[in-house]
Here is the input.
Amino acid sequence: MKESVIYQEIFHEGEVKGKKQGEKEGEIKGKQEATRNIALNMLRNNMNLEDIAKLTGLSLPEIEQLNSSLNTDE
Here is the structure.
């Protein structure tokens, strides 16, 4: 009986940690997606690639890749 309670406590602790980790990862991915969307809007407004990189924190190769995908979608 005592082992069962310990197992349940360990399981619950793991469940809580997993949920927190998942929420954190989701928040990070959401912020990254928002940053990419901002960069895409800047590209659509013909902003300079270097300026977009500076303002968004994305690397120049990332901006170039977004620009490429934008041009192929049109």
About this structure: Residues 2-44 form the longest helix (43 residues). Residues 24 and 55 are 24 Å apart (CA to CA).
